[in-house]
Task: inverse folding
């Protein structure tokens, strides 16, 4: 059975967010072909592991993500980051919402061609702002200790590093107690 907060988190996943330069658009399977190009640089995976996926592999992954979590207590929220002026995709942001809608683990990826322009920061700020507006109380990100750019994004959106290390990554956290 879903509680009111979990249902609210599902509505969160359907929200389109507009910033000064970006749209955060709910992920769709149709984004796979364009995103395969955005995420094609092997350098993107240096800190997070893995390798670029083909358009077909990404399509299969997006089908699973769009279908939603098999656990009714977990809500997957995934967006592509669309540059408004260029009308093209540049990355993704995501939130896994748990704890009855009170906790969200977030992540962001910006394609190599768009890095260094503040896009990840702007997208992550919009994401965290939306989460807090919708009642999330704790926002968590895991950042590799050598990934200065991701640490800068986490800091810019109000997260602070903790002493906790999980799978070689530092847990960053923002607690917004009621």
Result:
């Amino acid at each position: 059975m879903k509680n009111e907060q979990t249902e609210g988190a599902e509505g969160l996943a359907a929200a389109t967010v507009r910033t000064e330069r970006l749209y955060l658009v709910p992920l769709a399977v149709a984004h796979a072909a364009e995103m395969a190009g955005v995420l094609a640089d092997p350098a993107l995976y240096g800190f997070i592991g893995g390798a670029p996926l083909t358009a077909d592999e990404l399509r299969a992954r997006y089908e699973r993500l769009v279908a939603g979590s098999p656990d009714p207590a977990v809500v997957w929220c995934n967006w592509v980051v669309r540059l408004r002026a260029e009308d093209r995709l540049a990355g993704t942001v995501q939130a896994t919402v748990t704890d009855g809608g009170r906790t969200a683990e977030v992540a962001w990826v910006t394609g190599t061609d768009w890095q260094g322009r503040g896009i990840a920061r702007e997208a992550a700020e919009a994401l965290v702002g939306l989460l807090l507006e919708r009642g999330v109380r704790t926002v968590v990100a895991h950042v590799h200790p050598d990934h200065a750019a991701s640490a800068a994004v986490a800091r810019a959106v109000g997260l602070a590093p903790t002493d906790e290390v999980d799978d070689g990554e530092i847990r960053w956290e923002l607690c917004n107690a009621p």
